[in-house]
Specification:
By secondary structure, the protein is α/β, with parallel strands linked by helices. It folds into two domains: about 70 residues, Chemotaxis Receptor Methyltransferase Cher, domain 1 (Orthogonal Bundle), CATH 1.10.155; about 160 residues, Vaccinia Virus protein VP39 (Rossmann fold), CATH 3.40.50. It contains ten helices and ten strands. Strands 6-2-1-7-8-10-9 form a seven-stranded mixed sheet, with helices on one face. A three-stranded antiparallel sheet has the order 3-5-4. The structure holds S-adenosylmethionine. The site of S-adenosylmethionine has 23 residues, from loops. S-adenosylmethionine (SAM) binds next to loops.
């Protein structure tokens, strides 16, 4: 592989573009990271400079190169039942949510859902805790900026090592075991897959067209790379789709310093809409 240099003026172009498109602010120190992580991609594309790659990136109207760039400099890491304390909290919150419902209808948004573990965990959780789960009208909206992770999420098939640590009872009710060329995989059962609507959606630049309210919003480990003004605006939008009393879940390393008048910290990075 040819090692391609990233000049300061080239890095400045990426920095501005990425900030405008995804709200990620790259500090000067990130120049080495961009160079290191993107060199392979430039080689794959047969490009000999970062300036040429910049032109390629900005002219790709599909958004796929942008998603690839974001994946290269950030992370899609996720897992089933991630942030254990939040699921514990949800166990105690669920009876109140159920009691508040006149219609048996639940709507949840998993924003930045990566390869689907988060929205599917929500369904597994509800299936486990609602004895009349099948009689509920439950829909999860699951969105991400990356087409690659979304196609994995839609397929809903996971390696055994990512599934087998879960309780047997949950695995039995939620997955079908399938033999693939790559070994044993677990595929989310169709009665759960059909409750999730996966959509490509950029939280920073796509228009905010949501009119319906959600019973809860999960946006965990997504805004870690956003700067304060971007995070502020994304959170403000979430508050417009959350009815009073509803929870917003962030990642355990994330906390809010703003929106004190509309969101109250309940603990474990769970905020309640006031
Ligand atoms: C680390 S994963 C978190 C997945 C899951 N929420 C969790 O906590 O396990 C972050 C995800 O956010 C997505 N993401 C990053 N910036 C985004 C943006 N501007 N709009 C939508 N999704 C974004 C990434 O593509 C990635 O899949």
């Amino acid at each position: 592989m040819v090692e391609i240099e990233l000049k300061p003026e080239e890095f400045a172009l990426f920095r501005r573009y990425i900030y405008e498109k995804v709200g990620i602010s790259l500090s000067d120190q990130k120049s080495t990271l961009v160079k290191g992580r993107l060199n392979k991609r430039l080689n794959q594309l047969g490009l000999d400079s970062f300036r040429a790659y910049y032109d390629y990136l900005v002219h790709d109207m599909s958004g796929e190169e942008l998603a690839l760039f974001v994946s290269a400099i950030s992370t899609n890491v996720t897992s089933f039942f991630r942030e254990g304390a939040q699921w514990k909290w949800l166990e105690s919150y669920l009876p109140a949510l159920i009691a508040s419902k006149r219609e048996k209808k639940i709507r949840i948004w998993s924003a930045g859902c990566s390869s689907g573990e988060e929205p599917y965990t929500i369904l597994m959780f509800l299936q486990h805790h609602l004895s009349d789960f099948e009689s509920w009208d439950i829909k999860i909206l699951a969105t991400d900026i990356s087409p690659k992770v979304l196609s994995h999420a839609i397929e809903g098939s996971y390696e055994a090592k990512n599934v087998e640590a879960m309780p047997r009872e949950i695995i039995g009710k939620s997955f079908e075991k399938v033999r693939t060329e790559k070994g044993i995989h677990y595929r989310i059962a169709s009665h759960l897959r059909e409750k999730v609507m996966f959509r490509l959606y950029n939280l920073v630049t796509d228009p905010f067209f949501f009119k319906n309210q959600f019973d809860m919003v999960f946006c965990r480990n997504v805004m870690i790379y956003f700067d304060d003004p971007t995070r502020h605006e994304v959170i403000r939008r979430f508050t417009t789709v959350l009815p009073k009393g509803s929870p917003l879940f962030l990642g355990s390393s994330e906390s809010l310093t703003s929106h004190r008048d509309t969101l109250k910290l309940l603990g474990s990075s769970i905020y309640q809409r006031l």
